Amino acid sequence: MVTLKTNTSVVKIDAGELVGYEVNGHEFIHQKGSPGWDSADTEMFPIIGPVNESDFRVKTPKGEAIQDQHGLLRQMEYELEHQTDTSAVFVKQYRSGTEVSNSKFPEKSTEAVLSWPYDFRFEKSFLLTDDGLEVHFKVSGEEGMPFMLGYHPAFKLYSKSPMIVAEDKEITLDEVLEVGSRALQVADCTSITLKDEKQITIETEGFGNFMCWTEVRNMVCIEPISFYPYAVNQTQLHKGFQKLEETAEFKVTLKPEA
Q1: Whole-number Å distance between alpha carbons of 195 and 191
Q2: Which keywords describe this protein according to UniProt (predicted)?
């Protein structure tokens, strides 16, 4: 467990997963073991969305890749590369064609292993400041590699009627629940505020969109995404790819209420 601290905040990171962000005694992150989801955050890469209806295949310029929901990155382990009192850097590296065991097999998937036809390095770094928590992502690899990126943090809810505010639009928890597993799309948006017992704003750079998901009332996932996967049929998921140019950098800042 990696712990980052300031005078008012404590961040806990378990093998690259953000499992705690406490500010002045208030915990903002969904706790593993609580109802709703067995994780606290994860990344969606190099695809976002399910692929069960496309036989777990995704089209790339190098042929079809075997993927499962939200890609293979989440099936890999992070290595801690650097740490200070207020920062930490985690890395995952992948070699083209390497088979990665799929934890969804056999209960939820027909594919025992996943693979991707490109080399890549994926860096996730945390920086805790007095104003908030910055989460940076840096993707490097083969020139022209297709990819999508989504960040999937879960926030703990305290009140009965929390509100999600995206610019001038208000979204209730009931609206998110009604959409179900598809996740509610919030298009062309770079900042969302979760108004609950305490308020926190999720600001982004590089993503451009959000989707919101939950199936319970005690947590909600507010997910920055580069592409909303349900905008296309699963067999056309490749239409949501962007192409890597040397490196691609993304940023999410969690800003708690002052």
Answers
A1: 13
A2: Calcium
